[in-house]
Write a structure and sequence with these properties.
- This protein is an alpha+beta fold.
- It has two domains: 38 residues; 71 residues.
- Helices cover 42% and strands 27% of the residues.
- The protein has four helices and four strands; from the N terminus they run αααββββα.
- A four-stranded antiparallel β-sheet has the order 1-2-3-4, with helices on one face.
């Protein structure tokens, strides 16, 4: 019996406990670091929701000309109005589809591509 106790090394139970502890640490690190980063990412919006949001607050908006999606920074949306002018908005969104839409710039001039299409 003493020969078994004098062996050097770890038992299977001790190794299993260490693996479980490392697994718990890894999972908690993912939930505390990675998941909030993804949830706060600025790619959680739909085109339909964006159009509804813009038209609700700014009924003069006609079409969305350009969207620039940025994951860690504010997304930029360019909208053409009924009178031909363009407005630029910044959008901050999260995984729950909460929007924070702000108008940042207005351009009264039309570019050549827009004039060509009309």
């Amino acid at each position: 019996m003493n020969a078994i106790r004098n062996r050097k090394g770890f038992t299977v139970l001790e190794l299993l406990i260490v693996v479980v502890i490392f697994t718990v640490i890894a999972i908690s690190t993912i939930w505390l670091v990675v998941v909030p980063f993804i949830a706060k990412g600025n790619c959680w919006f739909t085109q339909e929701g964006l159009i509804r949001e813009i038209r609700f607050n700014h009924p003069e908006a006609e079409i969305i000309v350009k969207t620039e999606t940025h994951f860690t920074d504010l997304s930029t949306i360019t909208v053409q109005n009924n009178d031909g002018s363009r407005d630029k908005y910044t959008l901050d969104s999260d995984i729950l589809f909460n929007y924070d839409l702000k108008k940042v710039e207005r351009s009264d001039s039309l570019d050549k591509a827009t004039l060509k299409n009309k």
